[in-house]
Design a protein that fits this description.
It is a single chain. Helix content is 35%, strand content 14%. With 284 residues, it is an alpha/beta fold. It folds into two domains: 35 residues, no CATH class; 202 residues, Rossmann fold (3-Layer(aba) Sandwich). The strands form three sheets. A four-stranded parallel beta sheet has the order 3-8-7-4, with helices on both faces. It has a two-stranded antiparallel sheet with strand order 1-2. The longest helix has 13 residues. The protein is globular. The C terminus is likely disordered.
């Protein structure tokens, strides 16, 4: 009876199959994902990045002499740096979905390990701050995934965690919105919690996914308004939206194709084929 009870408990705690590839798990673990899948996630790769927000581009055309994208040149992005580990696709996207929507909270540990790999070794911070959820969404989900990531990252870095940001109003879904619409959607969403002091502190804002950076920029703006001297963002993954990059003159062989890419970048319509990924990622 005792052996059967132990077996039943182990079956509940340790699923038989990997939740990403479906293969049988070879070892007991609180994480229902095989080691091969966890080890297969690779860092984000691109030939051209913005030097500040790390947005990937298909070519260098949108970047200035300092490697800055148009949004960072204009100061629209209030953060000072962005660090992301991988692309929001494939197994990494599956892991984040399991963590956030499947409520597999034990995935916070391996995901935080990706965060640590994304951070520059010589960068210094004073405090970790998770991106907040509105209280209704947190109540529905049962936890804030960014807060769990921040706690795991704190164990690895010894940096304190301060949940100093709050959402002062709910935000409609971002999916399907253009860059400008996303930024209007999150304007004024965040505020610093009463009693939290960020003056002259270097803050690392922790999140799971970055798409356009609009939410991170709004959160950074609230922290800067509260006196933070430096705000960097670290996320597990970011959406690959490289079709936003305008092609350089040498690449424009089809004027209609160039106009299509330009209209997509301005209005957020469906991306034409020919530049960037063949399928569109949806923001979650």
């Amino acid at each position: 009876m005792g052996a059967k009870l132990l077996s039943d408990c182990l079956s509940l705690l340790f699923p038989d199959d990997c939740r990403t590839c479906g293969k049988a798990l070879q070892e007991f673990s609180r994480i229902p994902v095989c080691r091969a899948c966890l080890d297969s996630v690779r860092p984000f790769e691109a030939d051209y990045f913005c030097s500040i927000c790390r947005t990937p581009f298909a070519n260098a055309y949108p970047l200035d002499g300092e490697g800055r994208c148009p949004l960072c040149r204009r100061g629209t992005n209030r953060f000072d740096a962005v660090y992301c580990y991988g692309a929001y696709d494939g197994i990494l996207r599956d892991l984040i979905h399991l963590f956030k929507y499947g409520r597999v909270k034990t995935l916070a540990k391996p995901l935080a390990a990706y965060l640590l790999q994304a951070l520059p070794a010589r960068e210094r911070f004073d405090v970790l701050t998770p991106a907040p959820l509105h209280w209704r969404r947190r109540l529905w989900r049962g936890f804030n995934q960014a807060a769990l990531l921040a706690k795991e990252l704190s164990r690895k870095t010894s940096l304190p965690v301060e949940e100093g940001l709050v959402r002062v109003r709910p935000r409609p879904p971002q999916a399907g919105l253009s860059n400008a619409e996303r930024r209007r959607n999150v304007a004024g969403v965040f505020a610093v919690r009463e009693g939290c002091d960020f003056r002259n502190r270097r803050v690392l804002l922790v999140d799971d996914v970055i798409t356009t950076g609009a939410t991170a920029a709004a959160a950074a703006a609230a922290l800067k308004s509260a006196g933070a001297s430096h705000v960097a963002v670290v996320a597990v993954a970011r959406a690959d939206r490289r079709w936003f990059a305008f092609p350089g003159p040498a690449q424009v062989r089809d004027p209609d194709l160039f106009r299509g890419n330009f209209e997509y970048a301005v209005r957020g319509s469906n991306a034409p084929t020919g530049f960037g990924p063949e399928r569109q990622l949806r923001a979650d």
